[in-house]
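thread: overnight batch results

M.L. [08:02]
morning all. the overnight job finished for the chain we discussed friday. pasting input first so we're all looking at the same thing
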Amino acid sequence: YMCSLSLFHYSEYLVTAINNPRSLSLDSFLLNHSFEYNLAALSSWVEFTLEKLLFPELKQITWLSTVGLLMVVFGDCLRKAAMLTAGSNFNHIVQNEKSDTHTLVTSGVYGWFRHPSYVGWFYWSIGTQVLLCNPICMVGYALVSWRFFRERVEEEEITLIHFFGEEYLEYKRKVPSGLPFIKGVKVEL
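M.L. [08:03]
and the structure it wrote out:
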């Protein structure tokens, strides 16, 4: 778990350094993502420790930890593939102004999902809790991550429609968001 957590944050910085060095800062590690992110991490550590002390057998379900590890690896690989595919178009902060070099990326993993970096992070975060055999945080992470990404996708898609117009709307019609039960911003024609 600690290795996957460390690798996730280090690789966020590394891929940003490769793809978009102009936006590189200590924030690129995503360690100070938000108060909620830090609270979620702390909650998972507290749950793991208490359950390890009170119900040690709960923490020894090897097949479940293996499933969690696979989710973590899949999620992180998908997120990094999205970052690398998007190149300098990827930024940790949703952009409000279109730069001259900003293009709509629809190839690679963006041909599978409209928001592959969010899909990756979604499954990575839930996978960390499956890996730890944390039933409470697993449900909590799934619900909170889903709500966060539902709002984030809508916010981002409004911007993408503003940037790319009909080109983005056509892409949106063809490619799913990739997140369960999240369709994105509703557009009435």
